Structure formats: C-alpha cells, structure tokens
Amino acid sequence: EQIFILDQLEPIYTEAKTLLHNENYSHFAFLFKLVGRIQNTIIELKKIVEENFCPKIIKSITPISVTAIDASTNYIESILNIREEFFKVVQDFFHNDEHFIAAVEKTCRNFINNNVLPESADNAGKSAELLTRYCDKLLQKGSEVDIEEKFDQIMIGFDYVKDKDVYEKFYYKMLFKRLLCGVRKYEYSEERMILRLKTICDLTYISKLQELFQGGNISKTLLDQYRLYCEKNKINDIVINILN
C-alpha cells in the first residue's frame, strides 16, 4: 500500500488541491488520513492546506473590505466568523487533528494579515488598527451582558495580528480619548480589557495604560465632587478633565 501511494503522490497532491478548492472536506479528510500515514508526506499536505483552504470563504471578505475602514465592526466580526468556520471544518471533518490544526492556524494568520484590505491599503497593520477600533466601539457602547464574549474574540484576533505594536499604539490613543471625552460606558469593562492585555503585552506598556486609566478615574472623582459643590452652591460648573 505504501509503495502504491508513494508512486502516486503527485496525482494525489493535485487531487488534494482540487478537493480543497471545491471544499469537499469529507473526501479530503479521507485522503489526509490515508497519505498522512506515509512518512514526510504530512509536510506537503500541510502546505497544500495552508495555500488552498476554504477559498470561497476567504473570497467573501473582498466586498466587506471595501467599506472596512469606515465599518470596522463588520470587518472584524467577518474575519473572526471566517476563523470560526475554519475551525468548524477542522472539528467536523478532521477531528481536531493536530497537524491540520497547525496548518489552519497558519492559514488564519496569513488571511488576517494579508487579505485584500491590508494589501489594498498598502498597510500590513490595517487589521490590527481596525481590531482596536472595534474594541473602542465596544467599550464606548457595549453591554456588560456579552462583553466578555466579545473580549474573547478580540483576544483571538490579537493573537493572530502580526503588528501588535500597531494595536497597542491605537489602543492607548483611544483609551486616552475615551477618558478625556467621558465616553466610557462601563468602567468595569475598561478594567477587564486592560487585565486581558496584561497577560500578553509588555509590562511597560501595561503600566502606561494603568497609569492613564487611574489618572482618568481620579479626574472623574474630582469632577463629580466639583459638580456636587456647584449644585450645592448654585454655581454654573465648567467641565474640565485632568489626565496624568
């Protein structure tokens, strides 16, 4: 059997590409299992998966990317949904095979960082920037009911984006703006998001975020006290935000 498979490897690899292109995962799963028993063939199969997996799903991002810069929510939720579809295929047809998972992980990373939007914008960090803008919108308007689930999704996206420094830069700027303009919906959510970032970001960066956040809280406390004083003494108050 092994000798026969070795003699037919090139036609098998060609067929594997065709099956993936047609999204015929049940037949590809059988082929993957069969050929995977032969030493060293798994490397080529993983490469084929990385280059040919879910072409129709990946293509679906093209129309969304046109408006992505102005509609970050739609773009980010779309790429995260695509990632979820990828792994549903892995679970349903490949029973979470470790080799297949590794190949799909690489596919996801390439797709998120190199889809039509970053390429058209000539900016490899565009997905990271839009992920930050998506997070910003959640923290401005989000509900406490599903915010943790949304944060889970953001962290999945953060794990894949290549230019994490872009995310960090924009997150700091947007946190500053939320604090300055007083547009935070839930203080608890801000704290939870910083806590999430604390597990994966540089300590110096997290310290800067925490200092900024604490400065915003002090400013809010002082302003609340000032407003109470103005109300008590019937003074027209002037809103001033102080951030360290």
Automatic annotation (TrEMBL):
It comes from the Eukaryota. Residues 126-244 form the Cullin family profile domain. GO terms for biological process: ubiquitin-dependent protein catabolic process. Pfam families: Cullin (PF00888). Gene3D superfamilies: Cullin Repeats (1.20.1310.10). GO terms for molecular function: ubiquitin protein ligase binding. SUPFAM superfamilies: Cullin homology domain, Cullin repeat-like. InterPro entries: Cullin, Cullin_homology, Cullin_homology_sf, Cullin_N, Cullin_repeat-like_dom_sf. PANTHER family: CULLIN (PTHR11932). Belongs to the cullin family. This is Cullin family profile domain-containing protein. It comes from Rotaria sordida. The lineage of its organism: Eukaryota, Metazoa, Spiralia, Gnathifera, Rotifera.
